Amino acid sequence: MINGLNDLIDIQKKRLPDINARREKPGDAAGWQVLVCTGTGCTSSASHQVREELAKQVQLKKVQARVIKTGCFGFCKMGPLVVIYPGQTLYCLVKKEDVAEIVEKHLLEGQVVERLLYEEPASGERKRRLSDIQFFRAQYRVALRNCGLINPEDITEYIACEGYFALADVLLNWTPAQVVDAIKQSGLRGRGGAGFPTGRKWELAAVAEGPVKYVVCNADEGDPGAFMDRSILEGDPHSVLEAMAIAGYAIGAREGYIYVRAEYPIAVDRLERAIAQARQYGLLGRRIFNTNFDFDIDLRLGAGAFVCGEETALLRSAVGERGEPRPRPPYPAQCGLWGKPTLLNNVETYANVPVIIREGPAWFASLGTENSRGTKVFSLAGKVLNTGLIEVPMGTTLRTVVFDIGGGIPEGRQFKAVQTGGPSGGCIPERYLDTPIDYESLKQLGSMMGSGGMIVLDETDCIVDIAKFYLQFSQDESCGQCTPCRVGTKRMLEILERITLGQGQMGDLNELEELSREVMDASLCGLGQTAPNPVLSTLKYFRDEYEAHIRDKRCPAGVCRALLDYVIDEEKCVACGLCARECVAKAIIGEKKGQPYFIDRQKCLKCGACLARCPKGAIYTA
Amino acid sequence: MAGGEKELDEKYRQLDEVIERYGHQEGQLIRILKEAQDIFGYLPEEVQTYIAGKLDMPVSEVNGVVTFYALFHTEPRGKYGISVCMGTACYVQGAQGILDEFRRQLDLHEGDTSADGLFTVKSTRCVGACGLAPVLTVEDEVYGKFRRQDVAKLLRKYRRREVIAGDQRAERPDRYPEETAPGH
Ligand SMILES: Cc1cc2nc3c(=O)[nH]c(=O)nc-3n(C[C@H](O)[C@H](O)[C@H](O)COP(=O)(O)O)c2cc1C
Ligand code: FES
Ligand code: FES
């Protein structure tokens, strides 16, 4: 039970050597520390088997080593990941079968298992230390500071990293107004999408009248292709709890709710553990740090509706109703949960708060650009070598992210665009790759920061198809209350559908633009107001690709199936029969070692499996 | 079915526990519905009515919530739920083709559940393992870097599991969709 700062310091002292050893600071933690990622990415490739096997063998061979669970390191592409301290050795793609060798060679003999090290693709060099790898070197971690460093299920590891010290400081030494001021001065803006100044929001909630107020965390993360909030919750749940308590103090609330989707089982589990531990240590509950401040947090589950990420819809859903948005004002700061003043922020926004308090607003404001301070977490995915979770200072260029950290496009293909902002964002073409990323610059390019999903597209991605994908998403997820959004997106989708089927007309493009304007102007909530963005931005930068579909009945990327025919080049075909074996539709006819094969157009599903399989490059699309 | 009633009683008993735990808290309807769905496998009208009664709210309100959220379903599902990730990262790596292939091989024209009641196939949003795209899950198991050609093999794996388990309800279908995908 923690009653004051001294109790916190005691715990920190006890656990600091372990953490220092992981931070490579002088300390004297005994023995090896073997960190195994238990983020969603690594768990999906069976990191738990690796962890269990490690624990088993360490015990069996009586090695002085501890096996520790962590959250996501970010380098998910190379998972399951294992990092060993001292030495900061990173092992990639570790399988259960590799464990014996790691234990024998590394933990017993102190030698590195070369073959499991990461090989830098550009130089072919094997990198031993995590911090030597290009992927990590260009990053700067603030919100992700503890992800991959601490065991998220152990509150004392968080405390060792100065966790809950900001809360202690604030409760013991600051006035609520000073807290609000600090957040304002830091220049922090909301990481959930729109980038509203966080300090301003806290101020509005602080001055709102009423004895009962709430603090809410938006952990819905509906963007299809984004997983940063989830990774923070899985890797460092206490940072969110601590920030919410600080926010509660600042605005005068005693209760907080985290709205998290039920489809994030690991995040829900870690949050439940974290809340229970924080209560047990007296860091949530009554009279925190022996002050008069009471604060507790509870979870509310979301059930898979994108629109519930919108703040007014979320507040309804959090009280168990249908998650339908309502017009604003009134804003949540005046009328939120159960009609009471409510402060609503995103997970990543909160994760920044304890650092701002500890390091000072000036430090935070010194990072990033003039109007966008601090760092931003992105989930980088799609046609990029190093998919994963990254954090960079605002103002880093798209090129740095995609080519430096991301390692560029695999298989020697051409970069086409990077999609940011998810369903409310747009596609940015090559010529803007040197744009520094911040809220304004992305908006100027017709895209958005959004929550930080970043999908890289290459020459084999069809831009019309991508626009259709996002619009389909918005159409599916529209709550249906307002006509512009419900019907407008449907009309737009029909047009895009026609174009991909080769039935488009040139007039369609103008109509798409007109409809876009109408839907944006007349929709009730942010979903409809931004849904046309993917269409508008692709029309702006890739109009020729739309025109190729309409005028030439051709899909340059080779995606739109109705516009493709798979053909076997008789000259090149050696009748090996591999394509026919690959074909699930039995559409490829021929005899092994006989005449060239051919494809039955009627039966062909246009899946492209044959094309990928052909060793001679004899199959092409026309 | 022998014992069916007992089984059902047991389920309602579990549901009572859930309502006991969360029912007095405000705004926990979604939580209760989720747990109820985990217990019953889906949310039939009787269960919705039961929950409404216990929470003292109109059935229409409970039903309004059930129909709003993608997580809830009111029809029974197959024994194995296959969720194909249609997040953006998976989509650009060919997830649509995988979904189409499942639908074709399982002959799903309308509805998501195969005629033998074994498989329910649906699409889902980002699973959070984008590095492994395209990704699908079968119940709790995650399959990454999945290819359209692996569909037949996957279905075979679970069907075989049924045969071995000797589960009588899951009869072998008359005819497997044509065997495909050599090399697996
Ligand atoms: C359709 C729609 C979906 C949204 N989804 C999310 C979401 O999943 N997570 C999130 O934090 N914010 C989401 N937002 C933004 C929230 O409404 C809100 O602005 C944000 O959570 C506020 O927190 P912040 O100021 O810390 O960014 C969404 C907005 C709209 C219009
Ligand atoms: S989940 Fe393991 S590195 Fe991301
Ligand atoms: S998009 Fe499929 S796992 Fe993220």
TrEMBL record, chain A:
Q: Which PROSITE patterns match?
A: 4FE4S_FER_1, 4FE4S_FER_2, COMPLEX1_51K_2
Is Iron among the key words of this record? yes
**Annotated GO MF terms:** 4 iron, 4 sulfur cluster binding; FMN binding; metal ion binding; NADH dehydrogenase (ubiquinone) activity
For this protein, the record's Pfam families field holds: 2Fe-2S_thioredx, Complex1_51K, Fer4_9, NADH_4Fe-4S
Keyword Metal-binding listed: yes
Record key words, sorted = 4Fe-4S, Iron, Iron-sulfur, Metal-binding
Q: Which domain of life is it from?
A: Bacteria
User: Could you say which protein family the record assigns here?
Assistant: Belongs to the complex I 51 kDa subunit family.
Q: What is this protein called?
A: NADH-quinone oxidoreductase subunit NuoF
Species assigned in the record: Desulfofundulus salinus
TrEMBL record, chain B:
Annotated keywords: 2Fe-2S, Iron, Iron-sulfur, Metal-binding
Q: What SUPFAM superfamilies does this protein map onto?
A: Thioredoxin-like
- In this chain, [2Fe-2S] cluster is annotated as bound at 85, 90, 126, 130
Q: Which InterPro entries match?
A: NADP_DH_HndA-like (IPR028431), NuoE-like (IPR002023), NuoE_dom (IPR042128), NuoE_N (IPR041921), Thioredoxin-like_sf (IPR036249)
Relay the cofactor remark from the entry: Binds 1 [2Fe-2S] cluster.
Which cofactor names does the annotation list?
A: [2Fe-2S] cluster
GO MF terms here are: 2 iron, 2 sulfur cluster binding; metal ion binding; oxidoreductase activity
Q: Does the keyword Calcium apply?
A: no
For the keyword Iron, the answer is yes
Q: Which family does it belong to?
A: Belongs to the complex I 24 kDa subunit family.
The identity of this protein, by name, is: NAD(P)H-dependent oxidoreductase subunit E
Q: Which organism is it from?
A: Desulfofundulus salinus
